[in-house]
Amino acid sequence: xxxxxxxxxxxxxxxxxxxxxxxxxxxxxxxxxxxxxxxxxxxxxxxxxxxxxxxxxxxxxxxxxxxxxxxxxxxxxxxxxxxxxxxxxxxxxxxxxxxxxxxxxxxxxxxxxxxxxxxxxxxxxxxxxxxxxxxxxxxxxxxxxxxxxxxxxxxxxxxxxxxxxxxxxxxxxxxxxxxxxxxxxxxxxxxxxxxxxxxxxxxxxxxxxxxxxxxxxxxxxxxxxxxxxxxxxxxxxxxxxxxxxxxxxxxxxxxxxxxxxxxxxxxxxxxxxxxxxxxxxxxxxxxxxxxxxxxxxxxxxxxxxxxxxxxxxxxxxxxxxxxxxxxxxxxxxxxxxxxxx
Length: 341
What we know:
single chain, alpha+beta, Lipocalin, twelve-stranded antiparallel barrel, 56% strand, Autotransporte_beta_dom_sf
């Protein structure tokens, strides 16, 4: 009987250790997912606000649909000054846009290794309520596909995926001057996750709240646009606990308080093609789950391209790669199209 009792105690202890290890891996992955997804969402909207509210470079070509040359053809040689645009102003009061992004990120820390992919799609509409104030609303969905690598001492080699994920995000921009711009966004994301350890599956819900605010300063030099941005993001997550294969998995609530700084340079070619490069620095001021090796910061290098196709159409492409965070790396790409009227 003594040996039987000892065996029961051992099994219970092992189960508790396994559940604890699972929770640690889950917490690290959940923290990374929240940080990566929130950075992607905030970057997507910041990019829209920058394109809309930022001052336009000298020589920018704008198509006038009200001007016809002597041969009866539409005149496409008008630039921003010809259209009467001041810095930071837009040709139209309303705009609609759509954007898709893809992010690949991974963690190589023992106990929480994974490879993950996320897809996000956002569509939005905005209105320039005054010459200085832009108000907008975006909505969209996301997809997560995360493959675990030997969690719980090798017992869990399953997946963590979204059954569904929806986001609503109001945003605004305010021009203090033609060259100093405030941007802010608030987002609510509701997700339904499906956690599989290779044999059993459990599901849980998540509600995530994001606040993102920043101030940008622009410097215009002929075709060059130089800018800097100081920003802050706060994310809180309410995650439900659940049962998987008879094991209770604790999902404590999460939060992230993060500062970010950006330096960016863009150059206008041929009056409508604008490549740019940027470097971003992120620093975690506070986080619910301690990062691997207590590494609280990372850099991101960015390359992008804006195409000002006409006075109503803008197309954008952007790619980024992170570096500097211990045992973590991330790569992303995004594309957008905007129509104004």
